[in-house]
Task: inverse folding
């Protein structure tokens, strides 16, 4: 089923061993990470981790994010990160923590030839602003956090579909469906013509369930509940004065 999809799958995570293993798989077209994932993975030396990964992953695109909140320092970090490899895309947040737009910085970096992955977008207005700042020359990704949009009770598909249309004439810009919550999102993203979807390592493990017989899956679920109850040693001893209801005893 995955072979029939047009969308590219990028692995999203910060476990070095898993990143290298996934990068070797043909169905994984690229990789991304971010400071939150790196912190959860216990990484303390940003540069050392990135260079270690890049020493093994030299061809497929991989994104590393700036972490300053000051635009001048973001720019300095962006140029350094970009220097680490030809396959590196620098993740720039759509705003800083004060809701100040990163558009001017994005424009300067694009004109300087820095490949970017502009991240944390959630509105069509942000997509059009970022797209205009990126221009039509330097290769770039625009990451819209469809999963977080869905977390608010909104259907992300209309926003994502409109974003695809907004980028249609710009061959250097590719839309990423970011923060998916379920395998179904891969097929939703593919259906609307989204270019890339980032998938966490845990969610990638679920790809083995694609096309599975639902009756068999139902049985396996029942077996899981039963086996876990036995492993936990759960019992409901018969209390004095109670017993098996007559209808069941019969």
Result:
């Amino acid at each position: 089923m995955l072979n029939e999809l047009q969308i590219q799958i990028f692995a999203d995570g910060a476990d070095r061993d898993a990143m290298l293993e996934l990068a070797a798989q043909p169905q994984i077209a690229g990789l991304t990470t971010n400071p939150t994932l790196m912190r959860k993975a216990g990484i303390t030396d940003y540069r050392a981790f990135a260079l270690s990964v890049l020493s093994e992953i030299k061809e497929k695109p991989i994104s590393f994010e700036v972490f300053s909140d000051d635009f001048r320092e973001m720019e300095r970090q962006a140029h350094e990160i970009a220097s680490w490899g030809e396959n590196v895309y620098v993740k720039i947040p759509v705003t800083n923590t004060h809701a100040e737009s990163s558009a001017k910085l994005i424009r300067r970096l694009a004109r300087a030839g820095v490949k970017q992955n502009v991240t944390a977008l959630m509105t069509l207005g942000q997509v059009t602003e970022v797209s205009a700042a990126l221009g039509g020359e330097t290769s770039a990704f625009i990451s819209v956090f469809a999963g977080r949009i869905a977390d608010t009770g909104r259907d992300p598909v209309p926003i994502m579909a409109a974003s695809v249309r907004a980028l249609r004439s710009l061959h250097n810009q590719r839309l990423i469906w970011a923060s998916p919550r379920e395998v179904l999102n891969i097929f939703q993203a593919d259906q609307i013509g989204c270019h890339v979807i980032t998938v966490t390592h845990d969610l990638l493990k679920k790809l083995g369930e694609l096309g599975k017989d639902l009756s068999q899956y139902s049985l396996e679920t029942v077996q899981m509940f039963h086996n876990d109850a036995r492993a936990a040693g759960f019992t409901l001893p018969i209390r004095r004065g109670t017993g098996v209801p007559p209808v069941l005893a019969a």
Observations:
- The chain has two domains: 2-209, 214-249.
